[in-house]
Please model this.
Amino acid sequence: MNAPAAATADHPKSSAYQRIATEEAFAPPEMLAIYRKIIEKGDADPGFKGLMGFYMSSPSDRAQHIMRCLQDLDQLRLQHMDECGIDKQVIALTAPGVQVMDKATAVSFSQIANDQLAEAVHRHPTRFVGMIAVAPQDPTAAAKEIERGVSKLGMNSVIINSHTQGEYLSDPKFWDIFAAAEAHDVPIYLHPNSLPANMIQPFQECGLDGAIYGFGVETGLHALRIITSGVFDRFPKLKMIIGHMGEALPFWLYRLDYMHRATVLSKRYDSMQPLKKKPSDYLRENFYITNSGVAWEPAIKFSQQTLGVDRVMYAMDYPYQYQRDEVIAMDNMTMSAEDKKKFFQTNAETVFKIG
Model:
């Protein structure tokens, strides 16, 4: 990937709003070392091996750019932000985070990663905001890390990279995580992961397993599993965030409502029981979405119209998608000044409690 050119007169720092990018990734070198050991064992999950194994070993320009940028929490990242006019990044541990590790390592390293990110935020308090990484492998420890992240590290959101070794948060054994997030009033950002082993083959054999399609399919599935399992009836104040224009779910609302009702009435699945509300209600009331990786005005406007202008936020998806012209395109959207400021700035300030 080619780095954007330096800022020019056609891309000044905006005086009308700050640009807060809300799905930006980092990877400590120590985590990459753990990843290499997992891959060297020879029995790594095929999705993880195919994705991170590739990026950590490929000589391609794109892979080298991503690995270099992921590991930087100082001058290179700030330089790239300045070149694109990004005022703040909300930064999270890149997928799959600790979720590919064994339980003990995952719990331990989530704390290390959170401490490192908190230190970077302390170094650059006006530029960086951090998300709390947790290990779903141990829901009790994850709940405790949410409490520590909020009370000790000053972070106000949680990152979970979709499934954890093929298991989904719709399983009640994980619901201590939801209880902690609701209790501390912090949203959970449900970010894509590489596809689980029992899902990946038909995607991978034609190159559609990654961000081009597979990520959105799997993460959208995860969000729907959470909704249809009754999580939001149990935790009505829980807030979640999904990226990439809501992983296409806003465009499916009508059919999701219709077929959920039809499926419940059919009594075909014990796992699909009546809910207090329609699936679309939970998406409108409990979810926020970002446009990460989708710099496309029609999709943004449709989602604002469908979910509400207070529910849609800007994101770049750095360093995986890092294009200065996309920021310019978002600046030039035909949109009221009030709604554009909500999209770029004030929605993020509200959701992530950015002072």
The chain has a mean pLDDT of 95. The two ends are 34 Å apart (CA to CA). The beta strands are 20-26, 88-93, 128-130, 132-133, 158-160, 188-190, 240-242, 287-290, 312-313.
